[in-house]
């Protein structure tokens, strides 16, 4: 709340564009495609109709989740599926486009597929810089035999593979060529604004501030955003990935293929046996497009009925979201998991050959239980030798017949082909309680053919890999305990739908968990859902990885009340994403090194995140002065001399208030990296700067950022007026903007003689910037709380 004129309401995430970034944004770029929502030339879009369609999708998702809160019997155990007879080619061609194929038919298709295995375009750093252009645009592609028209990076079903090294700088230009959207009131914590995007470098230990790995940036249709991400020289090499991360559109963007592998080279790569192995980058995705489908429609007006789609191309849109992002929608649609955008590719190995597979689960909500099965039911499968998870070396090779992946997981495995020829299927194994708490049937991902001349290849020894594991925190001194409770809960008022929560609350950009730079903390994360919802949640936190010490969960996954047992195998283990079972609890330790700033923890079932299962994290430097250590003055009254200040700009040049005497001056104080509202204010001042200049009014901003942080931000996006650094909060205190609960915002209009002509302070920044051009606003805003 504030004690001044109420500025026009800004959609919450329009306030998240970080400091200085709008200045220099390229807008009104010609759109390469108008997309499925576009209208014929000369026809106005019906935003009211689009809003109604979106609200229906919200209602449908709410009904589906609400149904899961009702009591229901435990799912029966899954029985093995018998091997299938071979089918004729005409039968297979018809089957490939079918969404209702039986398990036997799907196996037949997998056993004779001839789809080529391909990898995305690869971009490597040069001279310490990796330069990338990502264009978010609609594109036409084919999955199996189905034509699809989906949002993409650079027109493909998966983004380019990015390869860099510790110490490199990533310079990424993200250009949004998607069409404009209508404004949607009250859309916070819903699926919405599918054409608004941004970028996250998942797993990288880099700064979350400014134009680095800042997921609070908003890149709207027609805008271009520059990112500059500095990879520390001591960064852990490994398999990471990048993907869209705008709250509300993350699920739709990632499900469409707006993601790609990001590899930091070194470490395991340099071992002779691994260096000699052929490497495959495999980005797995479940793309839930609606095409020619008949699906259940449980909305009240269509209760007990089905809805049939017969579209010319597969789509993922707000109007169809209710049939794509709910529990059980993926198996209902009958699609295949793609490998680098290809359905059922063929992978060829030579007998005895060793390959390294970098596997990324980029799916937005499904889990995978990968196995390499022999097509001969009596024959042995191929084992995986897992050497890293989430990009972090295990320090050994762990033999597994099944590699389990949840959304956001990565696994680096060595695969050694048998010494004899044969054929195998890469499958997603059946489980009796999958990610939605229901039976998961066997699914087919790729065909693997072992053929050709034998090869003799070695495997690395565990002793060679030991030193590559991050040092353990198991015996570290713990500074504090942290907790988080994830849950899908019925709405308190009993209305349809559910709330997606952390600590009982849906995402709120005004609340953040505060942590201290340099601390080593132990976290306890638990899942407790409402009613009979039996799903866990993959926990993910940005910037800092963590070492998992324990995963406790029900012995019988179909019965959350069954005996609690330890489920962590081969632990402790370092990760950045971790499945927490329903009614389960995990413990891990992490330390916050190198970076202060604001970022998030969230569920990596991305439609859960979009609907509110996310929480802000703010890491603060304990050495920085606190508000309590400042001697705060009262807010200067109107007519009183403006308090003097002496603060440096990004170049280190000091500015004092006396420098601005003789002209009217606006001084506004805003919080830096930790404030999610200030970016819009900076943008408004930058946009109105020509009008201020024409009236002879000077503008000066004062931020709580350090001069170094300020310098980094301004290097990429210069600001048309001075911005001064006040990391100690002295100027804030002088202007009465240092309160007992932290720094606050203030805007002051100062006349030619240096006296306060008008001022406002409060928990939110003043956004009616243009009102100051013609003098003090005619309001009661001269008072402050």
The beta-strand count equals 45
Strand neighbour order, sheet with most strands: 15-14-11-17-22-19-20
CATH architecture of the domain at 89-116 and 330-468: Sandwich
Rounded Rg: 28 Å
Please state the oligomeric state of the protein chains shown.
Answer: single chain
Shape: globular
CATH class of the domain at 89-116 and 330-468: Mainly Beta
Q: What is the CATH superfamily classification of the domain at 89-116 and 330-468?
A: Cupredoxins -  blue copper proteins
For the biggest sheet, the summary is:
7 strands, mixed
- Mean pLDDT, as a whole number? 86
Low-confidence spans: pLDDT under 50, at least 5 residues?
1-43, 71-93, 779-785
Helical run tally: 11
Question: How far apart are the termini?
Answer: 10 Å
What structural category characterises the helix and strand content? Answer: mainly beta
Helix content: 10-25%
């Amino acid at each position: 709340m504030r004690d001044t004129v109420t500025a026009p309401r800004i959609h919450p995430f329009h306030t998240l564009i970080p400091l200085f970034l709008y200045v220099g944004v390229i807008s009104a770029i010609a759109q390469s495609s108008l997309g499925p929502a576009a209208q014929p030339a000369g026809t106005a879009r019906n935003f009211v109709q689009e809003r109604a369609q979106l609200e229906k999708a919200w209602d449908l998702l709410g009904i589906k989740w609400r149904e899961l809160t009702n009591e229901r019997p435990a799912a029966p155990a899954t029985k093995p599926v018998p091997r299938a007879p071979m089918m004729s080619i005409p039968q297979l061609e018809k089957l490939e486009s079918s969404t209702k194929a039986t398990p036997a038919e799907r196996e037949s298709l997998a056993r004779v597929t001839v789809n080529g295995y391909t990898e995305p375009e690869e971009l490597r750093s040069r001279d310490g810089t990796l330069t990338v252009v990502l264009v978010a645009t609609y594109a036409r592609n084919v999955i199996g035999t189905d034509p699809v028209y989906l949002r993409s990076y650079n027109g493909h079903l998966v983004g380019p593979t990015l390869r860099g090294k510790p110490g490199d700088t990533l310079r990424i230009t993200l250009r949004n060529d998607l069409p404009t959207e209508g404004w949607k009131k009250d859309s916070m914590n819903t699926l919405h604004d599918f054409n608004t995007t941004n970028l996250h470098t998942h797993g990288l230990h880099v700064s979350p501030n400014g134009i680095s790995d800042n997921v609070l940036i908003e890149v709207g249709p027609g805008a271009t955003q520059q990112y500059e991400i500095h990879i520390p020289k001591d960064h852990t090499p490994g398999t990471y990935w990048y993907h869209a991360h705008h709250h509300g559109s993350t699920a739709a963007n990632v499900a469409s293929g707006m993601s790609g592998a990001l590899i930091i080279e070194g470490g395991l790569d340099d071992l002779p046996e691994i260096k000699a192995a052929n490497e495959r980058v495999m980005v797995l995705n479940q793309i839930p497009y609606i095409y020619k489908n008949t699906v259940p429609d449980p909305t009240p007006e269509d209760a007990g009925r089905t809805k049939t789609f017969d579209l010319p191309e597969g789509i993922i849109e707000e109007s169809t979201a209710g049939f794509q992002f709910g529990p059980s929608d993926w198996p209902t649609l009958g699609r295949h998991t793609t490998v680098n955008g290809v359905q059922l590719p063929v992978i060829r190995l030579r007998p005895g050959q060793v390959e390294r597979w970098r596997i990324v689960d980029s799916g937005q909500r499904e889990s995978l239980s990968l196995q390499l099965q022999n097509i001969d039911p009596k024959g042995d499968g191929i084992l995986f030798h897992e050497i890293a998870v989430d990009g972090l070396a295990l320090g050994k090779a762990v033999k597994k017949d099944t590699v389990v992946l949840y959304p956001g997981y990565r696994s680096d495995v060595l695969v050694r082909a048998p010494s004899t020829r044969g054929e195998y299927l890469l499958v997603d194994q059946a489980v009796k309680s999958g990610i939605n708490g229901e039976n998961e049937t066997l699914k087919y991902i790729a065909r693997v053919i072992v053929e050709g001349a034998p090869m003799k290849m070695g495997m690395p020894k565990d002793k060679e890999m030991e030193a590559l594991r991050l040092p353990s925190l198991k015996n570290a001194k713990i500074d504090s305990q942290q907790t988080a409770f994830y849950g899908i809960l019925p709405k308190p008022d009993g209305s349809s739908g559910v709330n997606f929560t952390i600590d009982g609350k849906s995402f709120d950009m005004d609340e953040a968990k505060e942590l201290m730079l340099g601390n080593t903390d132990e976290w306890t994360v638990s899942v407790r859902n409402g009613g009979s919802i039996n799903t866990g949640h993959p926990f993910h936190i940005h910037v800092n990885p963590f070492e998992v010490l324990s995963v406790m969960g029900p012995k019988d996954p179909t019965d959350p009340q069954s005996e609690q047992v330890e489920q962590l195998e081969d632990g402790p283990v370092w990760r950045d994403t971790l499945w927490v079972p329903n009614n389960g609890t995990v413990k891990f330790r992490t330390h916050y090194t190198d970076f202060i700033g604001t970022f998030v923890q969230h569920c990596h079932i991305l439609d859960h995140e979009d609907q509110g299962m996310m929480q802000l994290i703010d890491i603060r430097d304990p050495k920085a002065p606190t508000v309590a250590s400042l001697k705060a003055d009262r807010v200067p009254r109107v007519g009183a001399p403006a308090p003097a200040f002496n603060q440096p700009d990004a170049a280190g040049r000091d500015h004092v208030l006396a420098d601005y005497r003789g002209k009217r001056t606006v001084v506004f104080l805003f919080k830096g990296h930790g404030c999610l509202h200030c970016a819009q204010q900076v943008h408004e001042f930058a946009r109105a700067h020509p009008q201020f200049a024409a009236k002879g009014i000077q503008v000066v901003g004062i931020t709580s950022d350090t001069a170094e942080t300020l310098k980094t931000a301004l290097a990429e996006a210069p600001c048309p007026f001075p911005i001064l650094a006040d990391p100690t909060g002295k100027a804030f205190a002088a202007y009465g903007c240092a309160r007992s609960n932290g720094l606050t915002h203030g805007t002051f209009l100062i006349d030619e003689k240096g006296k306060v002509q008008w001022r406002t302070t409060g928990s939110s920044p003043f956004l009616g910037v243009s009102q100051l051009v013609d003098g003090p606003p005619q309001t009661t805003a001269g008072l402050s709380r």
